[in-house]
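Q: what sequence does this backbone want?
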């Protein structure tokens, strides 16, 4: 397309973007494996896995075949009063995952809708059981999506502030990976504030800056909340599929009452959200009394193409080839983190499963930045043929599992160069 810059600027609005950034707008025409290609044939390593959705690599043949097969049989049908094989098979496969609540699954369209469903389910369940619930709880620094419910539980930053009056009541617990949590203080707060549910990104806050916390720190808090009857909602939209080292982070913690998945669930091919719930919560949706039933739905609920892709993703994920690739990636990310921690103390170099992250300390740091370091890193990455998606002053890589050693070396080499450039002044 010849005049694409003009068409794009005139007719499109992009997420979290401003016309000032349009200079570096990429026009991607195809993708293969770990690479994206622009209209001039220039190759870019997809170090952000296309906003964390891509799992095995672009155009992975097994997923292409699964999509083609399913589209020949049934592309879509409404899911109210109708069922189909891909949804039934996928629901069974998901509830069998370690760390997943084993009741039922409610499908929706993306990460944010999976969270909306979770918040409504928790509220619904509590209203039927104990009544007396006043709010939700969430960690400071979290991100759960851009719909109103999900936004309410995220950090109340510049992106959220303009909508404050529209938000659901959420009280925040200070995210504190270093010091942990004072359980007695929290117990008292539960009694005063009466939270219906606690929404958390287990072990790894993604958009908040790849902030990690250990299972030893988080687990006692989750156990206390569970004991006190607070519904646990694990947001595994990002952490699913190895981002914390295991298929689900909840495997390393406790099984939540509700668990949300999306992003890599279809290998990065199609949008799909899944909200898994405990048997007790599943039962609460099935009331004889019409006024007490759970009412929610989307036109594309349980889309058969997306469900077929998710089934194939689960199958591939447990195959020896991908397990080998995954372990190699985890190890190489860990080694770099260790090396950089010694070399560049200020970088807070860290890794967690397939994720590697470093900080570039600045006065106004964090995702909600006014400093331009994130932009600088992004632009320099593009020049080097690597697509990063820095979070303010945090540069990270979470590449597709197919990434070859040469591409992985290039990503690490670039990060190393940037650390030398900005931290060794
Ligand atoms: C932890 C977490 N939850 C929810 C979401 C929202 O997902 P989506 O962008 O698909 O709506 C995101 C997106 O980045 C996320 O990281």
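A:
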């Amino acid at each position: 397309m010849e005049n694409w810059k003009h068409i794009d600027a005139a007719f499109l609005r992009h997420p979290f973007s401003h016309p000032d950034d349009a200079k570096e707008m990429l026009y991607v025409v195809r993708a293969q494996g770990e690479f994206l290609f622009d209209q001039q044939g220039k190759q870019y390593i997809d170090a952000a896995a296309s906003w964390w959705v891509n799992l095995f690599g672009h155009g992975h043949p097994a997923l292409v075949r699964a999509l083609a097969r399913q589209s020949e049989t049934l592309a879509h049908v409404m899911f109210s009063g109708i069922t189909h094989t891909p949804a039934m098979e996928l629901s069974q496969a998901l509830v069998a995952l370690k760390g997943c609540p084993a009741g039922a699954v409610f499908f929706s369209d993306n990460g944010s809708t999976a969270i909306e469903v979770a918040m409504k389910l928790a509220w619904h369940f509590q209203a039927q059981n104990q009544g007396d619930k006043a709010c939700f709880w969430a960690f400071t620094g979290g991100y759960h999506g851009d719909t109103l419910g999900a936004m309410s539980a995220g950090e109340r930053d510049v992106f959220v502030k303009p909508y404050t009056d529209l938000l659901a009541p959420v009280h925040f617990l200070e995210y504190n990976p270093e010091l942990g949590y004072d359980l007695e203080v929290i117990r008292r707060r539960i009694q005063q504030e009466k939270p219906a549910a606690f929404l958390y990104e287990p072990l790894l806050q993604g958009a908040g800056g790849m902030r990690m916390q250990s299972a030893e720190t988080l687990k006692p808090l989750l156990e206390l909340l569970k004991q006190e009857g607070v519904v646990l909602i694990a947001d595994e939209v990002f952490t699913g599929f190895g981002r914390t080292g295991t298929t689900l982070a909840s495997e390393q913690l406790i099984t939540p009452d509700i668990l949300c998945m999306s992003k890599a669930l279809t290998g990065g091919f199609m949008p799909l959200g899944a909200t898994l719930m405990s048997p007790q919560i599943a039962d609460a949706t099935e009331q004889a009394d019409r006024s007490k039933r759970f009412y929610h739905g989307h036109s594309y609920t349980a889309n058969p193409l997306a469900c077929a892709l998710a089934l194939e993703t689960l199958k591939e994920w447990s195959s020896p080839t991908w397990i080998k690739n995954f372990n190699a990636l985890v190890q190489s990310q860990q080694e770099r983190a260790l090396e950089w921690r010694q070399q560049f103390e200020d970088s807070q170099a860290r890794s967690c499963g397939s994720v590697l992250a470093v900080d570039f300390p600045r006065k106004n740091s964090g995702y909600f930045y006014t400093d331009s370091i994130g932009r600088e890193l992004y632009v320099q990455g593009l020049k080097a043929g690597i697509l990063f998606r820095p979070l303010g002053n945090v540069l990270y890589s979470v590449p597709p599992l197919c990434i070859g050693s040469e591409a992985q070396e290039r990503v690490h080499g670039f990060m190393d160069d940037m650390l030398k450039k900005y931290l060794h002044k």
